[in-house]
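Students often ask why we bother predicting the structure of a whole assembly rather than each chain alone. The short answer is interfaces. A chain on its own may look different once its partners are present, and contacts between molecules only exist in the joint model. In this exercise we take two input lines together and write out one structure for the complete complex. Read the inputs first and try to guess which parts will touch.
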Amino acid sequence: MTSPAGHHPTCSDGGCSTVPGAAEIDASFRFPALLVAFKSAAWLVLGALLLLVASVKLHGPGMLSGKPWLTYGRLLPAGWDVLVYGFAGQAAAITGLWVLARAVSQRLQAPILVLAGLALWNVGVLAGLVGILCGESTGREWLEMPPGAMSFLVFGAALMGVSGWMTYSARTNDDAYPSAWFSLLALLSFVWFGTVALSMLGGEGARGVVQVLVQRWFATGISKLWLGGFAIAIIFHFLPTLVGRPLASRQLALVAFWSLAFFTPWSVTHHGDPFPRWLVSVGLAGRFLASIGWIALGMNWCKTTEKVKGTVSSTLAGRMIGAAAIALLTAWALDLLTSFLGMASVVRLTWTQAGIDWLLVGAVILAVQGALPELLSRSLGRPLSAGLLNAHSWLTLVGIGLASLPLVLAGLVQGRSLSNGTTGFVEALGSSMHLVRLNSLGLTLFFIGQLAFVGAVLGLARHLVLGCVTTVARWAASVPGGKTAGVRS
Amino acid sequence: MGGVGSGWEDGGGEIMNSGPFLFCGILLALASSWWGVIVAPRLQFGLSSTVVPAETGQHYPAGRPGLAQQGAEVYRSEGCNTCHSQLVRPEGFGFDLALGWGRRRTVAQDYLRDNPVMLGSVRVGPDLANIATRMGFGDTNLQPVFVATQLKHLYHPRAVTARSVMPAYPYLFEKRAIHGRPSADALKLEGAFAPEAGFEIVPKPEARALAAYLLSLRSSVSLPEAPVIPPPTNQVAGAKTNSIPAPAAPAAKK
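Now the answer. The structure tokens for the assembled complex follow.
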């Protein structure tokens, strides 16, 4: 195949069942994509709103303090989980499955499993949200949802994973494109990390700080291999198509894949943690070895877009995907940088950590929101409103930038003034608050941007409804209507 | 740039086209980390039990008394751990000991009986690993003062620390009309924070449990792997913690 978008001249429209063309693959995503578009858009707006309110509450602690479910300590995890699991994870899973299907030139297999998986997933997120707001959080970061809710997610992910592996096994081309590997890694990751975390934390499986290890191992796996894996798959899919030339190196992609898969989840400890020294060293070693993977990714992407970076940023999808790649690599670099002894003593346990998390999740959101409109317009045969998407892309880019980078700096400011030994905690915090205010501004822009995105999705829905009505009308007039999937590839 | 007929410029890795290979490879990758950072540590120290330090001659860590245990649940449920860590980093690393957040670093042994262990990852507020000891719990007479200060702080942090950004938790308290004499456990609030005349603010059981939990937070007994570090001579341990006015009474009594 010449690009992930693969042309199959032998396979004319609709007339070919063994080697499906791009249009057919896209069409096989029609229902899952539509479902995800609406569900995830709703979670997106809700999550962004919860996080925005939480961040504003930091500046006015007496505000909205009368209701338990509106307290900062519940809003923050609730908003984060809704954004991560409700929006990013769900949308990443469907776009990840799509780039997987394209990478192996096969229609989505057993779409019913995906639909069932998505249904379980959404029930789980809703239950988790209600649980956290009602005070049933587990108190474990990234795993705050009550175990009952979380197990819905794990089952849902397993069903989607089965469909993904079936699609991969039904490959019709000679070589699976690298985006397939990363999607599969991501699909398997959620099931693995989720199952182990639930079973170990449920009973007496983990006592004392072993619980922290399980929780951090889960959070690392989920953020970097599950969300990150999908984002990497999406970037691999889009970059060559955007610049119209093949991926620079399959070897580098292989190196990246295996070093990330093997070493990333080891990086769970930091200097100063209450663990034995060997474990802290293991965590640092894991971080260093995983860097091989990130560097390989960076080199591969840079070489692929060499001298044509302008082409990437000139399109809407390219802008989002390009920014996602940069944000992903920056998040990794910051994570590594802040784990060094000198830096860690200053910025560990400050806002910096939150800033890096935001950058990572922001990268995933950018990748997914670059890919989702493509998937929707291709599978449904209707473009989304370019104006709204354009506004959305700028607001989201700036919003995520402002939500993350000032926090990274705020941590540095706070940590430095505490390290000099003369400043009290509250003063040090105060000196960083103006940067934290920028985070609130970023979240506001992000939130407005998401409204534009939802507007675009709703616009699509209106067209679809109108389209259905006309089709039915035509059918009633006994004119056999053409297929709705007039898709260009 | 060539790459005619394939999606990349170089070859290799055909094995990635084998489903079973890829599946097993990924599983092996993920399982190795599980073994390395969870199973092995669990074998090393996850199964350890309480110790009896010479300093006290009592089992450490001791279980929490019932009310404090309920308080831990309130702490979890309100998400206090989104802003507060419970972890003191070692001497010479970070500023934790310099701020007086502990007499020594915290180690795995300290968390043996916690479930969930709420280490925390972002310190919007000060560390609480030793909040009981560093606010003058040393003297048992001061316990009621400690609890009263914590309750007032929870009701409205700005009633204690002027520029606090910690959220207020008024819903853990009850506003009651005073019939006859005011209740003994009513909060002593002044100025803008005081309820209107004829009313009083009384802690609900959740607030009381939370204060009991805070009172139970102390990881400062000397352990072989983490001996207590003698306080520097130029400062009273805990005095410089931060600008949070430690309860006026204990400070005065010191």
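Check your guess against this: The first helix of chain A runs from residue 22 to 27.
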